[in-house]
Amino acid sequence: xxxxxTTKLTKVFGGLRAVSNVNLEIHPGELVGLIGPNGAGKTxxxxxxxxxxxxxxxxxxxxxxxxxxxxxxxxxxxxxARTFQNIRLFADLTVLDNVKIAxxxxxxxxxxxSILRLGRYWQEEAEIEAKALRFLEIFQLxxxxxxxxxxxxxxxxxxxxxxxxxxxxxxLLLLDEPAAGMNPQETQQLMEMIRxxxxxxxxxxxxxxxxxxxxxxxxxxxxxxxxxxxIAHGTPQEIKTNPRVIEAYLGEEVH
Length: 255
Ligand SMILES: Nc1ncnc2c1ncn2[C@@H]1O[C@H](COP(=O)(O)OP(=O)(O)OP(=O)(O)O)[C@@H](O)[C@H]1O
Fold this sequence. Notes:
Layout (H helix, E strand, L loop, with lengths): L3 E10 L2 E11 L4 E5 L6 H8 L7 E6 L2 E2 L5 H7 L1 E3 L12 H9 L7 H6 L2 H20 L15 H14 L4 E5 L7 H18 L2 E5 L3 H7 L2 E6 L2 E6 L1 H5 L2 H8 L5
Parallel strand pairs: 3-8, 3-9, 6-7, 7-8
Antiparallel strand pairs: 1-2, 1-4, 4-5, 9-10
Helix pairs in contact: 3-5, 3-6, 5-6
Bound molecules: adenosine-5'-triphosphate (ATP).
């Protein structure tokens, strides 16, 4: 069964069909790319999947159930987490607190307990801290745990955003241009981290990316959007050689 399935997913802004009849099917454990020229509708698809926008038409099923109409936080609780094209961190909080915050979506302690700071509260706080530190280690940020997020380099902030998304314990991770602004060495490291976290956490990943070497190197399947519609989907090799894709988007970039 597909983990994520969209059927005729459509979003109209005024007269513009930003997303038009998009059918995606992503299976558990897959690492899938979503590519397309500027303005093709990629981020709008993410905004639909995460409840930022409601579809004008169409269905989104996640884990066998519709998520249409749910609020973003409810969708996070169902198991979809994301990062953003423009990094969104709590800029004035520490690196560690940025990750710990994501856990608080999942941890429940009663009001009285949290006020009185009784046993379970402290125990859970300690567990959260240990888990958050583990994510920081994976993303090579553990030694920066007490730094203020806005003081990190751009590449580090991108990695922190992924660490925070993972801390929400998603089944499906949506990455919006994770390598944007990174140099080739950072991009290479990021690819390895993405592969590793997928295996380690049994994750399913859908990523938007302009960096073709990243998309082609890391994804098993790719969907190509153009003017809101899927014009092709297939393996990286199939996409590279698809004349419609070359015409719409890839041009001379990929050989
Ligand atoms: N809230 C909105 N209101 C009106 N139009 C919008 C809105 N959000 C997106 N659009 C339009 O929808 C189309 C698709 O935009 P979207 O950001 O999804 O494309 P994209 O493929 O992610 O582009 P890019 O690669 O440049 O980020 C664009 O024409 C954009 O201007």
